[in-house]
């Protein structure tokens, strides 16, 4: 028999600023409201409610009632399952969470011109470590651990944002996760600062930073990030790479700013320089190219030939220099589309 399955629906939790989503994939899925002290007597009540909400959705989905937010999602699959397994409840467990995205804050030191979060922060920047403008995450996380709704193995935690380096709860949340035994961490960071806590946790975990560098020189960096920090950021990336941390360097193609081969080549040269300075450990340094969402998300978007050329150029460069080059699947498909 066939049953619906989506890896995101059963084992994830995504803490955003105004909602908590059941999914860490692209569709987000159904959402739960964030903690509100007027509604819940305690964090314990809140986390129990979160758990009940998840279990209800998973049970419903298991018996074929897919949440409407998931109906058209490309991740949703029908898989073959025997009646015996179905009745035994192959997915019908306590739904321990294995993947958590944490982004209940948006403050940041930078104001990248493409950043979609700037709509939320109104382009305001801060160098001060401060509380989230939305809700406290740490007490929720503590209760999730106490109530054992996070798995004990194969768990991945991904910090997004805003910028973790100016979020006051970051270190304690990371500490707690590390002590609980989480072995896989991903940090989306601007690398404005080097955070020793990340390096400490990386000694015996799989840790990865994802940094949008987007260029290979100070001038272009200033144009995109509105901050004169190119050299510091490159040094911080090298320090992370030398601390047993995998590095993914992103190049977001921004129209009329870095969308030419000369700029892309400077980025490639910077990646080469970082690789040369990566002298300790064997963690990978990889690249990824993406197109500014402000363009690609337009319904009538057609990729210009010059941008296709950039995708081909970086792919070739990666092959020649033995550096892996990632792209989102829908971007890759556009390379050869006419
Ligand atoms: C919003 S940032 C937050 C984490 C961190 N401050 C950083 O810069 O990586 C998360 C990711 O979203 C990406 N992003 C933001 N706006 C984008 C856009 N317009 N197009 C493509 N990627 C974008 C950034 O490149 C970054 O990798
Ligand atoms: S560093 Fe990240 S969160 Fe900050 S403005 Fe840039 S993309 Fe946005």
Briefly characterize the structure:
The protein has 13 helices and 12 strands. The chain has 338 residues and is an alpha/beta fold.
Mean pLDDT: 91
The main pleated sheet reads as: 10 strands, mixed
CATH superfamily of the largest domain, by name, is Aldolase class I
CATH class of the largest domain: Alpha Beta
Low-confidence stretches: none
Structure annotation, total helices: 13
Structural category: alpha/beta
Radius of gyration: 21 Å
Bound molecules: S-adenosylmethionine, iron/sulfur cluster
Task: Work out the oligomeric state of the chains in this entry.
Answer: single chain
Task: Kindly list the characteristics that best describe this protein.
338 residues, alpha/beta, TIM Barrel, ten-stranded mixed sheet, two-stranded antiparallel ribbon, 12 strands, 16% strand, globular, binds S-adenosylmethionine, binds iron/sulfur cluster
What does this structure look like?
α7 links the parallel β8 and β9. This protein is α/β, with parallel strands linked by helices and 338 residues long. The chain starts with a strand and ends with a helix. The longest helix is centred in the first third of the chain and has 20 residues. α2 packs across α5 and α9 crosses α10. The chain folds into 2 domains: 87 residues, no CATH class; 221 residues, Aldolase class I (TIM Barrel). The chain is built from 13 helices and 12 strands. A 10-stranded mixed beta sheet has the order 4-3-2-6-7-8-9-10-11-12. The protein has a two-stranded antiparallel sheet with strand order 1-5. The mean pLDDT is 91. The radius of gyration is 21 Å and the shape is globular. Helices cover 37% and strands 16% of the residues. The site of iron/sulfur cluster has 10 residues, from loops.
């Amino acid at each position: 028999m066939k049953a619906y399955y989506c890896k995101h629906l059963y084992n994830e939790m995504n803490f955003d600023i105004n909602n908590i989503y059941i999914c860490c994939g692209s569709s987000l899925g159904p959402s739960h409201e964030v903690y509100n002290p007027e509604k819940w007597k305690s964090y314990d009540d809140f986390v129990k409610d979160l758990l009940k909400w998840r279990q209800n959705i998973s049970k419903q989905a298991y018996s074929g009632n897919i949440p409407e937010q998931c109906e058209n999602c490309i991740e949703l699959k029908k898989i073959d399952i025997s009646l015996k397994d179905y009745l035994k409840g192959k997915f019908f467990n306590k739904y321990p969470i294995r993947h958590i995205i944490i982004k209940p804050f948006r403050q940041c030191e930078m104001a990248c011109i493409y950043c979609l979060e700037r709509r939320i922060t109104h382009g305001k920047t801060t160098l001060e470590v401060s509380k989230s403008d939305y809700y406290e995450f740490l007490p929720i996380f503590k209760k999730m651990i106490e109530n054992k709704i996070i798995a004990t193995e194969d768990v991945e935690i991904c910090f997004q944002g805003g910028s973790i380096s100016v979020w006051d709860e970051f270190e304690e949340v990371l500490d707690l996760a590390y002590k609980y035994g989480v072995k896989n961490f991903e940090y989306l960071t601007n690398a404005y600062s080097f955070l020793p806590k990340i390096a400490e946790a990386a000694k015996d975990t799989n840790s990865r930073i994802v940094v949008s560098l987007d260029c290979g020189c100070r001038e272009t960096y200033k144009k995109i990030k509105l901050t004169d920090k190119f050299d510091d950021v490159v040094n911080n990336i090298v320090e992370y790479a030398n601390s047993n941390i995998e590095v993914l360097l992103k190049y977001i193609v921004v129209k009329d700013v870095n969308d030419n081969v000369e700029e892309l080549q400077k980025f490639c040269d910077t990646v080469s320089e970082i690789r040369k300075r990566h002298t300790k450990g064997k963690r990978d340094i990889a690249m990824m190219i993406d197109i500014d969402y402000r363009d690609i998300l337009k319904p009538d978007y057609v990729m210009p030939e010059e941008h296709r050329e950039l995708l081909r150029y970086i792919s070739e460069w990666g092959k020649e220099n033995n550096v892996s080059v990632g792209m989102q699947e829908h971007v890759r498909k556009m390379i050869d589309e006419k």
